[in-house]
Write a structure and sequence with these properties.
Distance between the termini: 44 Å
InterPro entries: AhpC/TSA (IPR000866), Peroxiredoxin (IPR050217), Peroxiredoxin_AhpC-typ (IPR024706), Peroxiredoxin_C (IPR019479), Peroxiredoxin_TDXH (IPR022915), PRX_1cys (IPR045020), Thioredoxin-like_sf (IPR036249), Thioredoxin_domain (IPR013766)
Shape: elongated
Structural class: alpha+beta
Radius of gyration: 20 Å
Number of strands: 10
Function: Thiol-specific peroxidase that catalyzes the reduction of hydrogen peroxide and organic hydroperoxides to water and alcohols, respectively. Plays a role in cell protection against oxidative stress by detoxifying peroxides.
Family: Belongs to the peroxiredoxin family. Prx6 subfamily. Belongs to the peroxiredoxin family. AhpC/Prx1 subfamily.
Subcellular location: Cytoplasm
Order of helices and strands: EEEHEHEHEEHEHEE
EC number: 1.11.1.24
Largest sheet: 5 strands, mixed
């Protein structure tokens, strides 16, 4: 989808993710199929390309860890179903990695345009390395964009999902490079009275606006 100046219309964080129904290597899939689960929707520029091959191998290797945190994977590129099938078979034959998650065949670029995956500065016909984290209510919670030349970190995507889930469950924020088990950031107080009391509330106190705590297992 483009606006009058031919710029991609970007989806917005904390708004409903753009709805879609599309053909995939596992049959037709819709966004509604993933309600009740977290979804990582990720695009790659083209099948049979080396950087994309490393990324898909990594997503496959991490798939069970995503499932452990109620998260499904869904790939996308502007290639055909037959191309996807041939490419995933090649990955299995050459790298010993089986791709078991579905891949959207977005030949008409409908999904890619709805999610702002087509960046005219990069290509008018290939999706950049875009990653979207969608929560169980179908709300877009995070977006990551990488150029075509550089592969993304699948481990970071998994860390981000866990971080979002922790924030939702406990009403906290997470610091830079946070990992499960590490201290989290307590929301800062909103009144002078609460700020004055913050030091005596039992948190790991640095200043009234910066306090951490360790979550109970």
């Amino acid at each position: 989808m483009y606006n009058e100046t031919s710029q991609p219309v970007m989806p917005q964080i904390n708004r409903p993710a753009p709805a879609f129904t599309a053909k995939t290597t596992h049959g037709e899939k819709s966004l509604t199929d993933y309600l009740g689960k977290w979804l990582v929707l990720f695009a790659h520029p083209s099948d049979f390309t080396p950087v994309c091959t490393t990324e898909y191998s990594a997503f496959a290797n991490y798939e069970e860890q995503f499932k452990e945190v109620n998260t499904e994977l869904l790939g996308l590129s502007i290639d055909s179903i037959h191309s996807h099938i041939a490419w995933t078979r090649s990955i299995k034959d050459n790298f010993g990695v089986e791709i078991t998650f579905p891949i959207i065949a977005d030949l008409n670029m409908k999904v890619a345009n709805a999610y702002g995956m087509i960046q005219p500065g990069a290509s008018d016909t290939a999706a950049v390395r875009a990653t979207f984290v969608i929560d169980p209510e179908g709300v877009l919670r995070a977006m990551l964009y990488y150029p075509m030349t550089n592969g993304r970190s699948v481990e970071e995507v998994l860390r981000l999902v866990k971080s979002l889930q922790t924030s939702d469950e406990h009403g906290v924020a997470t610091p830079e490079a946070w990992l499960p088990g590490q201290p989290v950031i307590v929301p800062p107080p909103h009144t002078s009275q609460d700020a004055e009391a913050r030091q005596s509330e039992g948190y790991e106190y640095t200043d009234w606006y910066f306090c951490k705590k360790t979550l109970e297992c």
